[in-house]
Amino acid sequence: MLSFQRDGLYEGELLRFALLKGVIRITEKENYTDSFGFQWTKFAKTQIDRYQRSSKQSHDRFFAVTGWDREDLTGKNILEVGSGAGRFSHVVLQNTNANLFSVDYSNAVEANFGNNGPHERLKLFQSSIYELPFAPRQFDKVFCFGVLQHTPDVKESVKCLTEMVKEGGELIVDFYPLKGWHTKIHAKYILRPMTRKMSHDKLLSLIERNAGWLIRTYKFFDIAGVGKLLNRFLPICDIRNTLPPDLSKEELREWVILDTFDMYSPRYDQPQKLETVEGWFKEFGFKEFLGSVVNYDKSNSVTVVRGIR
Ligand SMILES: C[S@@+](CC[C@H](N)C(=O)[O-])C[C@H]1O[C@@H](n2cnc3c(N)ncnc32)[C@H](O)[C@@H]1O
Prior knowledge:
Blueprint: E1 19-20, E2 23-25, H1 34-42, H2 57-66, E3 77-81, H3 87-95, E4 99-104, H4 108-116, E5 122-126, E6 139-144, H5 154-162, E7 165-175, H6 187-195, H7 200-223, H8 227-230, H9 239-242, H10 249-264, H11 274-283, E8 288-296, E9 300-308
Parallel strand pairs: 2-5, 3-4, 3-6, 4-5, 6-7
Antiparallel strand pairs: 1-2, 7-9, 8-9
The site of S-adenosylmethionine (SAM) has 24 residues, from α1, α3 and β4.
């Protein structure tokens, strides 16, 4: 049985920390993650393996990155921070017998509940990484995928995650890599100062209206052999290196619209150097840690640091 940071969170404080639509809420109603609430409500099922025809991208990415053994996880307490619509919650619940405590700061928790709840091994919380409701050092495993770059203080975010890991437990994070000055020579970083301030509806409809010709141009550049050089200047997600390889035309359009909105709408987008994040693991008391680039699918990869406390 886990304990919570404030006694009686479940009982005495339920009125203040409302249980709403299957999720325990420990947050103000609106915060900087609104774009994610909007995005995961609109695209609640797009990336969930259960709804895919063939590829199991979330499953493959999760096990490639964690290297975890399903049997080993039986009865373990796992914390997931920044779960979005619950693509990885789904993988954990479907493939292991672990108890999953899953947190997101945005309204996306409702999409997650719609995809995965109610489930006897799932507890969902709407809470910030900076105010996690759990007492420290209780979790066997903590993972945080696709989140750190979108938080205002990435180092503090890593610190808050490390505090949740018990002695001998494991933390795994991924993040956008900062590879050098050229990382930010990209349409995303040129346009974001404008797009992140647009209303979510306006931005989404702008992306929807332009998705067709952008996909065609991206593919044309690729076939012409100039994709590596030119596609970074197209305001569209990286189709070749982030999306599953076997999507139909309609699925591709949906994934592109989702991922492009995910690039241009968030308040924060702060890529990090691998060595910097490794340094934080050390600073926050992790004895063993290792950064790496993990490949999954045919051409996708993700930058990761894992550590044992
Ligand atoms: C790009 S989404 C990734 C969601 C999911 N992990 C995935 O890979 O599909 C980033 C998520 O991080 C959440 N997030 C951002 N800042 C957060 C914070 N301070 N605390 C908890 N979650 C946060 C957002 O609400 C959003 O759902």
